[in-house]
């Protein structure tokens, strides 16, 4: 019996030591908010963040509270560690309020009200971060400009993957924005931002949603399988450019221009497999050209006196091509430029100019006078080639102009 008691006591002692070691490891991660102070110090000094030069700050262990950055011109490298909160109201994983030129990279952030917040901040960079399961926002830019948000994964946040409020000239590029419980990207009173090359999928409402936001560029995004709409411009969201986006398999609408969302440009977008490809109520003077709209319940739907929109050089391949309710719009670019390609057009082309001899008529107020006989060839030019080709074309034009001018002057003077 004494022998068994000794063995039992030894096992009990080992168990207590093991539990104590676990508790020590876990409790070392449970610390208060960490501050990177303006003087370069880290408070508390025992926090798992190290620096050798007061410029690069490297996270060396998991953190169970917020990081508040009070110093400009630094790099915070998460080294793939996790910053985890308790889902407390208004808590922030990494707070960059009033910061300039701070880079935050390679950190996982979860269970805060907001994962990363930039308020009144300028020239910061967020890259390679994994931001999930926060109660409101993944990344939130408020009154902030000229920041870069690229290559982040923002998933399963309770409201927005990325939100911009009253923010301008920011780049939101190459992010994976998935399964957020409202909109993937939301812009409110924001302008002159570039939103490009993002994968925006399976969000509960819209992939991209704007409200009262203008002059933004939405290009080459993959916006798929969102539960409501792909891209939704609302309430005076005007003069935006939507180009080269792949907008497919969204439940209700591909692209919406709603309530005085005027003077927007939609070009080179692929819109398919949705209830309605493009929906435009109460909106005017928009340009829609060179889009592929296929396999939708209705290709385009205009309503509530949405007028003076111009629709040309698009390819329509839908069972219901267009519905227009109390709306009058232009459906071609004149001759010989032509109108749109309609998969159900059955007219002829006697002179073989590529344009049908009879108009494609929807109703008394809407007619494509020059329907195309073949699908419009939409150019797919890599964006990095556009500027060099434009410069070359400009140079050639100048050279030709000068040569012609010299010849004309020679003829006038009589010089051979």
Describe this structure as you would to a colleague.
- With 416 residues, the chain is mainly β.
- The protein folds into 3 domains: 28-182, no CATH class; 205-380, no CATH class; 390-416.
- Helices cover 14% and strands 36% of the residues.
- The protein is built from 2 helices and 41 strands.
- Strands 2-1-5-8-11-14-17-20-23-26-29-32-35-38 form a 14-stranded mixed beta sheet, with no helix packed on it.
- A hairpin with a 5-residue loop joins strand 1 (34-36) and strand 2 (42-43).
- The chain is elongated and about 85 Å long.
- Mean pLDDT is 89; it is low at 6-30, 381-390 and 404-408.
Short characterization:
The protein contains 2 helices and 41 strands. A 14-stranded mixed β-sheet has the order 2-1-5-8-11-14-17-20-23-26-29-32-35-38, with no helix packed on it. Strands 3-4-6-9-12-15-18-21-24-27-30-33-36 form a 13-stranded mixed β-sheet, with no helix packed on it. It has a 12-stranded parallel β-sheet with strand order 7-10-13-16-19-22-25-28-31-34-37-39, with no helix packed on it. 14% of the residues lie in helices and 36% in strands.
Q: Whole-number average pLDDT? A: 89
Low-confidence stretches: 6-30, 381-390, 404-408
Q: Reading side by side through the largest sheet, how are the strands ordered?
A: 2-1-5-8-11-14-17-20-23-26-29-32-35-38
- Proportion of residues in helical segments: 10-25%
Number of strands: 41
User: What structural category do the secondary elements indicate?
Assistant: mainly beta
Number of domains: 3
Integer-rounded radius of gyration: 29 Å
**Relative strand content:** 35-45%
- How far apart, in Å, are the first and last alpha carbons? 125 Å
Count of alpha/pi helices: 2
| Largest beta-sheet characterization | 14 strands, mixed
Shape: elongated
């Amino acid at each position: 019996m004494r022998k068994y008691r000794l063995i039992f006591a030894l096992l009990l002692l080992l168990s207590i030591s093991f539990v104590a070691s676990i508790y020590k490891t876990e409790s070392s991660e449970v610390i208060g908010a960490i501050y990177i102070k303006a003087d370069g110090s880290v408070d508390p000094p025992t926090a798992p963040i190290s620096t050798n030069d007061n410029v690069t700050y490297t996270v060396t262990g998991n953190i169970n509270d917020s990081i508040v950055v009070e110093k400009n011109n630094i790099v915070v490298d998460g080294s793939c560690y996790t910053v985890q909160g308790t889902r407390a109201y208004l808590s922030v994983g990494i707070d960059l309020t009033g910061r300039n030129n701070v880079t935050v990279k390679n950190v996982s952030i979860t269970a805060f009200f907001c994962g990363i917040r930039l308020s009144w901040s300028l020239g910061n960079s967020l890259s390679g971060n994994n931001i999930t399961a926060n109660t409101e926002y993944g990344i939130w830019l408020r009154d902030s400009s000229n920041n870069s948000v690229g290559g982040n994964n923002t998933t399963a946040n309770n409201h927005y993957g990325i939100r911009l409020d009253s923010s301008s000239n920011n780049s939101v590029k190459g992010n994976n924005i998935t399964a957020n419980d409202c909109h993937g990207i939301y812009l409110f009173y924001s302008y002159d931002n570039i939103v490009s090359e993002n994968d925006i999928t399976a969000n509960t409402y819209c992939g991209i949603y704007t409200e009262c936001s203008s002059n933004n560029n939405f290009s080459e995004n993959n916006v798929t399988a969102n539960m409501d709409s792909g891209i939704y411009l609302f309430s005076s969201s005007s003069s935006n450019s939507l180009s080269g986006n792949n907008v497919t398999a969204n439940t209700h609408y591909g692209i919406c221009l709603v309530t005085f969302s005027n003077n927007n440009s939609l070009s080179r977008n692929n819109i398919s497999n949705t209830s309605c490809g493009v929906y435009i109520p109460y909106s005017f003077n928009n340009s829609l050209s060179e889009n592929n709209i296929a396999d939708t319940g209705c290709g385009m739907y205009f309503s509530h006196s949405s007028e003076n929109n111009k629709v040309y050089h698009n390819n329509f391949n839908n069972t219901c091509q267009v519905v227009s309710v109390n709306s009058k719009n232009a459906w071609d670019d004149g001759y010989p430029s032509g109108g749109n390609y309609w998969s159900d057009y059955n007219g002829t082309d006697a002179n073989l100019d590529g344009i049908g001899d009879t108009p494609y008529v929807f109703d008394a107020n809407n007619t494509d006078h020059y329907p195309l006989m073949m699908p419009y060839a939409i150019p797919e030019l890599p964006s990095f080639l556009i500027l060099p080709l434009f410069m070359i074309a400009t140079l050639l034009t100048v050279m030709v102009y000068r040569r012609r001018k010299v010849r004309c002057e020679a003829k006038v003077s009589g010089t051979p």
